[in-house]
Specification:
There is one protein chain. The protein is mostly helical. Among the domains are: 133 residues; 114 residues, Serine Threonine Protein Phosphatase 5, Tetratricopeptide repeat, CATH 1.25.40; 113 residues, Tetratricopeptide repeat domain (Serine Threonine Protein Phosphatase 5, Tetratricopeptide repeat); 80 residues. The protein has 29 helices and eight strands. The strands form three sheets. It has a three-stranded mixed β-sheet. β1 and β2 form a beta hairpin. α28 runs parallel beside α29. The longest helix has 31 residues.
Length: 653
């Protein structure tokens, strides 16, 4: 039996005493072995794929020769039965011939055996390993796996910490919480979570020490400071008297118990994960704001001069700016109850994490803040954003989510007419649900009048303009959004998306690949790039990007995207399997009819497609906004029934 160790030290061992040391001296061949053993759900890999990854500098003849030599070497070292072939073109690892620690780790996590899982996690996946001359695709795969496995380890540590706390082992709980935080040492979201957890189990000294170390690292290495939200949380912690014995949990809701989004080398694709410190880019992870851009953050909500100090902000997949509390501007300067402000900060944390469960937690926590402060405009604005994203994600029916978003945003403006965010949210609702283009444009303009430095308003306005066919203006808005928040991977993805809808596929692909080199785990970026490649006829590559979306692969738009490609490839059975999957999902959650219609179009079934498209209009699904720009409707675009649906939505030509 061959044992492959990938967590921490990367090496190969043989349980029968066989000498496999020569493989450890051949990095590229060791990398090939790991890739064969772990990459993809199918245990076979095509030769042409392998040579493109491991010998990209060679022509086909010489690359295939190098692959044959590498496979002969692996068979000699590992045994003839370890490497198997299926036909002439496919290579794989014999099932049961290799035991891999990261697979054992995953199995332990899935079974809830957290102690076993944490014992197996001895370090990051292929930590410090480098395969010279391999194509970027290999590093991208390593980075994706590293991020995914680190996220699982973080979940396991937090689960163990919660278990220890429930069992009354507060010392063990505190240690496990600190370990969980170490998986994301630069994540401000994770910092606030561990600080609150330690405070609640009575280890206030450790809570302060963790924060002080985080602040010291930011100051020393980035010349930055923690965000105002985090500083406010720490003031609350410091203000409480040191208890003589471990204190019981506070009455206020705890920091949300969700898996952390890991940061570090695993998150940053395109930067050397072996030689550089990680940047902090993705959802609910602290984003480094260079001092030249901090004015955008500070002035989004107030008319007061921006602070000169750089800050770390919480970001999200689609909207990087983390709206700040407007405590000092509301109700003629009357201060907001600190309990409500803390709840607001926590709700924004959940909102920034996106996902169905997190958004519903955000809704509940914003409402808790409003129970304390019924006239808290910022909390109403946050509630509006949460409902808008629940509608956009398809986690609530459109006729449930968007009216609630509209009502909350309107209430926020009644309380504070100077806010920019509620106007942007009203524009979002008007374009995606009301299909009222005049109101949508007016609300975006009002948002920017209130705060022209609010990047999300520019980002969403650009999407609206693209849907209206005003592509030059749309691209200009996305450039403004990026200028205001140049480190936003979400806005970078939207800019690429606008290029796609503008018909500039080469530029769209370029921008999206840059975004994915910044963070190879950027799920929406993979969806967008998959769509671009699909338009270009690169169906295998498009499918690979859909399948690289991690948890979002189970999102309805992702499922429909895969089904469309399967049909284009002639894999009709797989496409029909997707239709059955969507039907099954519809029994427990909202599934937009737009997605079902797309798969029927790809299958060449226009009558069924029009039935489902008309249902989508009745649902007022927000995807209808893109009927005129979505290339996947091209097979039925000339049908008079399609034009009739476009008229029902009221879209311009």
């Amino acid at each position: 039996m061959i044992e492959l160790h990938t967590l921490g030290t990367f090496d190969v061992r043989a349980s029968d005493g066989r000498d496999v040391h020569p493989l450890s001296t051949q990095p590229k061949r060791l990398a090939l072995f790991a890739y064969l053993a772990l990459a993809g759900s199918n245990r076979f890999h095509r030769r042409d794929t392998l040579v493109s990854i491991f010998w990209p500098e060679l022509d086909q003849t010489h690359a295939r020769g190098a692959l044959r030599q590498a496979l002969r070497f692996l068979r000699r070292v590992l045994g003839d039965d370890a490497i198997i072939a299926r036909g002439e073109e496919e290579i794989g690892i014999e099932q049961g011939a290799v035991v891999v620690d990261c697979q054992q780790f995953e199995q332990a996590c899935q079974a809830g055996r957290t102690e076993e899982a944490l014992a197996l996690y001895r370090g990051d996946f292929l930590d410090g390993f480098f395969a010279s001359d391999a194509a970027p695709a290999f590093d991208q795969w390593v980075d994706r796996e590293r991020a995914r496995l680190r996220s699982m380890a973080s979940k396991a540590a937090w689960a163990a910490a919660e278990g220890a706390r429930a069992a009354g082992d507060r010392i063990g709980a505190a240690e496990l919480a600190r370990r969980a935080a170490r998986f994301a040492p630069e994540s401000e979201g994770e910092l606030t979570r561990v600080v609150a957890f330690l405070d609640e189990v009575g280890d206030r000294a450790s809570a302060l020490a963790v924060y002080d170390e985080f602040a010291r690292r930011l100051k020393t290495e980035y010349e930055a400071e923690p965000s105002p939200e985090t500083s406010a949380l720490m003031r609350d912690v410091r203000a409480r008297t040191q208890p003589a014995s471990p204190a019981p949990p506070r009455a206020a809701p705890p920091v949300p118990n969700v898996p952390s989004v890991p940061v570090g080398s695993a998150d940053v694709d395109g930067l050397s994960s072996r030689s550089r410190r990680p940047l902090v880019w993705l959802a609910a992870v602290g984003i480094l704001s260079i001092s030249g851009y901090v004015a955008a953050f500070a002035s989004r909500h107030t008319s007061t001069p921006p602070t000169p100090n750089p800050v770390i902000r919480v970001a999200s997949d689609s909207t990087t700016f983390y709206p700040a509390d407007t405590t000092l501007n509301e109700r003629a300067g009357v201060a907001i109850d600190p309990r409500a402000r803390t709840l607001y900060i926590r709700a924004r944390y959940w909102w920034g994490r996106r996902g169905r469960a997190n958004l519903f937690r955000a809704v509940g926590t914003f409402q808790d803040a409003l129970d304390i402060e019924p006239t808290y405009a910022a909390a109403y604005s946050g509630l509006a954003d949460a409902y808008a994203q629940l509608g956009y994600g398809g986690f609530l029916r459109p006729d449930d989510a968007f009216p609630k978003a509209k009502a909350a945003a309107s209430r926020a403006l009644e309380l504070d007419s100077k806010l920019a965010e509620p106007h942007a949210t009203l524009g979002f609702v008007a374009m995606y649900y009301d299909w009222d283009w005049i109101v949508a444009e007016r609300e975006y303009e009002r948002a920017l009048q209130n705060n022209e430095r609010y990047p999300t308003a520019h980002e969403w306005f650009g999407l609206f303009l693209a849907a209206m066919g005003r592509f030059t203006e749309a691209q200009a808005e996305e450039r403004r959004a990026l200028a205001l928040d140049p480190l936003s991977i979400g806005i970078a993805g939207t800019a690429g998306w606008v290029q796609h809808y503008s018909g500039n596929q080469a530029e769209a692909e370029r921008q999206l690949r840059i975004a994915l080199r910044t963070d190879s785990t950027f799920a929406i970026g993979h969806l967008y790039l998959g769509r671009v490649l699909q338009v270009n006829g690169q169906l295998d590559s498009a499918l690979a990007h859909y399948q690289a979306m991690g948890a979002l692969r189970a999102w309805v738009p992702s499922i429909a995207g895969e089904g469309y490609v399967y049909a284009q490839q002639g894999r009709r059975d797989r496409a029909r399997e997707v239709l059955r999957q969507l039907d099954s999902l519809s029994r427990t959650q909202y599934v937009t009819s737009y997605a079902v219609a797309l798969v029927h179009v790809a299958l060449g079934e226009p009558d069924s497609a029009f039935v489902w498209l008309n249902k989508a209009v009745d649902e007022r699904t927000h995807w209808m906004l893109w009927l005129n720009r979505e290339r996947r409707w091209d097979p039925i675009r000339s049908d008079p029934r399609f034009r009739a649906i476009v008229r029902r939505v009221g879209l311009p030509d």
